[in-house]
Specification:
Blueprint (H helix, E strand, L loop, with lengths): L6 E4 L9 H16 L3 E6 L9 H14 L5 E4 L4 H13 L3 E7 L7 E7 L5 E6 L3 E6 L7 E5 L2 E2 L1 H11 L4 E5 L3 H14 L5 E5 L2 E2 L15 H6 L4 H9 L14 H7 L10 E2 L2 H13 L3 H11 L10 H5 L6 H8 L24 H16 L8 H12 L6 H12 L7 H8 L1 H11 L1
Parallel strand pairs: 1-2, 2-3, 10-11, 12-13
Antiparallel strand pairs: 4-5, 5-8, 6-7, 8-9
The structure holds one RNA strand.
RNA sequence: GGCCCUAUCGUCUAACGGUUAGGACAUCGGGUUUUCAAUCCGGUAAUCAGGGUUCGAUUCCCUGUGGGGUCACCA
């Protein structure tokens, strides 16, 4: 039982802020491990001392935490220098690798010792869970370099040794690694390691159809956190890039994702990332939240003096992520709830209705509204009251439009009933009066 | 350019030889109490091309073309 246990890993190098494409790889590896009751290993590949930075490592961890991709084991590759050296020496001793004295590539002209792999120049075939059987000739690889010296292993060696020592059963990684696989299998054979099952995921492309990259505007995953996306929505949305459950259901919880995920339904060709669809996923997940959570989140985004719970439903149906609340505030779309708007007289007119008629309707509205008691001044009653007048008019807009505009001063706004109920009877009457 | 992978609406995709080629996002139109939003209903929109195999190809094979990846003392 335990010997069949699935072990997957996510092995990023801390040389940048990973984007959604990078994290989707982690998500698939995580989902697959959880689905099979296996374990998920998180390994920081920091053998490149120059480019590895602590801040990047922290960012990766933050992203993993945020998405809830809990790992069973964490370590840094640099901490395994001992085992890397062990296998390096073993390979040299057995003739599978050798130390080569060559001129340093940095242009200094100095001579330097490197460790090169003794390439047997053969065809390597491996079965990929997604791509099927892949065969590559290793001849043109030459005797590739596997370490700068005995204490500084390079990628191919370090990956093979660590995957082997950690008992990784499934290497789930980006398609950009397929061409590395033949080298790594060669090393595996040389050190006597088993070859894991490979699953090379098609890449996530940007709108420019090129591999997603920060340079071309891809957001770091932690930016989605800052923008107020829901982690479960991003998890859901990212999983649907290049994978589908084969049914028409699209909104999945983490548990449902784990239960449904499989490698067989992973797409073979690259997918272009669609931000709009991700926002849709987010909105759908937001709708699943309790009203308490919605209240809390919306209110949090509002400046303290604007934190009126009555505003929440109005705001909520207009946003697809929490930070949209701040945009609404910044654009002044909520200002009329707090201060009397400046009215553009001409815009009070509804279609071709005369200004006299508008004036008269406004007066009618005031009169009707005045009759509602302070206590009954709620959306429902205001609506019934106003509608009973509007229904007797040639068109309802003759009344509803000027009232709404008088209250908001905006071309686009929520309906007049709800605005009136929120700003209260006095303020409503005063704004209508002012408009007249 | 060599090598590897790949090809269904604008985008993400369903179909595992027989469907009016389905869904979602986006878009367009309409309803829903005036505008916006939300919601409901409806529309436009795809099998890269050419050869095979087959009674029948989106589906299998070949070629072409397109797209992606990769060719470091990075990972």
């Amino acid at each position: 039982m335990s010997e069949n246990k699935v072990v997957t890993r996510f092995a990023p190098s801390p040389t940048g802020f990973p984007h959604l494409g990078n994290f989707r790889t982690a998500i698939f590896a995580y989902l697959f491990a959880k689905k099979h009751n296996g374990s998920f290993v998180f390994r920081i590949e920091d053998t490149d001392k120059e480019r590895s930075k602590k801040e990047f490592e922290e960012n990766i961890i933050e992203g993993l935490d945020w998405l809830g991709l809990s790992y069973d084991k964490f370590y840094r590759q640099s901490e395994n220098a001992g085992r890397h050296k062990f296998y390096l020496e073993k390979m040299i001793k057995e003739g599978n690798a050798y130390i080569s004295k060559e001129e340093a590539k940095d242009g200094s002209g100095a001579m330097k010792e490197l460790v090169r792999f003794k390439n047997p120049n053969i065809n390597v075939t491996f079965k990929d869970e997604i791509k099927g059987e892949v065969t590559m000739n290793t001849e043109d690889l030459g005797d590739f370099i596997i370490a700068k010296n005995l204490n500084e292993p390079l990628f191919h060696l370090a990956v093979v040794v660590d995957d082997f020592e950690e008992g990784i059963t499934h290497v789930i990684r980006g398609e950009d690694h397929v061409s590395n696989t033949s080298r790594q299998i060669l090393i595996q054979r040389a050190i006597g390691a088993t070859t894991p099952i490979y699953a090379h995921l098609p890449l996530v492309l940007g709108p420019d159809k090129l591999k997603l990259s920060k340079r071309r505007g891809a957001l770091a995953v932690t930016e989605y956190k800052k923008l107020g996306f829901l982690p479960e929505a991003v998890l859901n949305g990212a999983t649907f890039i290049g994978w589908n459950p084969g049914t028409e259901k699209e909104i999945f919880s983490r548990e449902e994702l784990i239960a449904s995920f499989d490698l067989e339904r992973v797409q073979k060709s690259p997918a272009i990332f669609n931000q709009e669809k991700l926002e849709w996923f987010n909105k759908e997940h937001m709708k699943l939240l309790s009203s308490g959570e919605i209240n809390k989140n919306v209110l949090e985004q509002l400046p303290e003096n604007m934190r009126n719970p009555k505003l929440v439903p109005i705001i909520f149906e207009r946003i697809s992520k929490w930070s949209d609340v701040k945009s609404m505030v910044a654009k002044g779309e909520l200002d009329f709830f707090f201060k009397s708007p400046v009215i553009d007289k001409a815009k009070l007119i509804y279609k071709k209705t005369s200004s006299e008629k508008i004036n008269q309707n406004l007066k009618l509205a005031i009169k009707a509204l005045e009759s509602i008691s302070e206590n009954d001044f709620n959306t429902e009653i205001i609506k019934i009251t106003l509608m009973s007048i509007a229904d007797n008019l040639e068109s309802r807009g003759e009344l509803l439009h000027p009232v709404r505009f008088a209250l908001s001063g905006l071309d686009k706004s929520p309906d007049p009933f709800i605005i009136a109920s929120i700003i209260g009877k006095n303020e409503t009457l005063s704004r209508l009066q002012k408009a007249i």
